[in-house]
Amino acid sequence: MSTQPSALREPSRSTPIESLSPLRDFVVAFGRLLDAQPDEPCILREGGALLTTLVANDSWLPQAYAQPHPNYYQQYLLHADSTERFSVVSFVWGPGQATPIHDHTVWGLIGMLRGAEYNQPYALDAAGRPLPQGAPSRLEPGTVEAVSPTIGDLHRVSNAFADQVSISIHVYGANIGGVHRHTYPEQGAPKPFVSGYSNTTLPNLWDRSKDGLKDRVPA
Ligand SMILES: [Fe+2]
To answer: In angstroms, what is the span from residue 182 Cα to ligand 1's centroid?
Structure first.
């Protein structure tokens, strides 16, 4: 699944973050979507539309969650639903970095925020070896794609750039950092892994002191 943004994207900014409200609005809307207990196609469609709106705007991601590591791609937790129905992460690619072939075991949505990445889908053959499925897709800013065990769960993702950082925003149907998953070597058995997260503190989505400031009168 792939959707394109309907409106022109705002350019990325190097100025300090003014508001996390786009991310707060996103997690509130995503929680409300899941409250209705929709089926997976609805989650991917409606949730994909919410993510398309979020990544159409590159002004809200705090610098602390946009930092690359010289050797490893980074996965920063931005929000975890209190009952772990979903989680939101920023995936930060240093120049030339790539994942191994891996699965997710739950649905996932991938929204490109900054830079670009290649997504190569795989499927297992009769002997359990991963085989590429078609050509890789290139995700440009504003693009949203989906993965899940029902529509295709194996892929390898890489930064499209050898000389710049790329960032995508992912949403998963679980607390993804704690999910038992697998990587798939070209030869040999799948290897279990649990990803964890690159950060130990979360962005504070809930300071509403700047919301509607102009309408407030000191008590
Ligand atoms: Fe993935």
So the answer is: 11
- What are the residue ranges spanned by the domains of the chain? 17-193
Task: Give the Å distance between the CA of 169 and the centre of ligand 1.
Answer: 11
Question: C-alpha distances in angstroms, 129 versus 99, 124, 149, 153?
Answer: 17, 5, 17, 14
Average pLDDT over residues 7-20: 53
Question: How many A from CA of 16 to the centre of ligand 1?
Answer: 30
- Dist. CA 217 → ligand 1 center (Å): 48
pTM of the model: 0.89
What span, in angstroms and rounded, lies between the C-alpha atoms of 212 and 25?
A: 15
Over residues 175-189, the pLDDT tens digits come to 999 999 999 998 889
Indicate the burial class of 38 (C-beta count within 10 angstroms; 0-12, 13-18, 19 or more). Answer: middle
- Least Cα distance to 49 among 22, 28, 26 occurs for 26
In angstroms, what is the span from residue 97 Cα to ligand 1's centroid?
Answer: 14
Distance (Å) from CA 157 to ligand 1 centroid:
7
CATH architecture of 17-193: Sandwich (2.60)
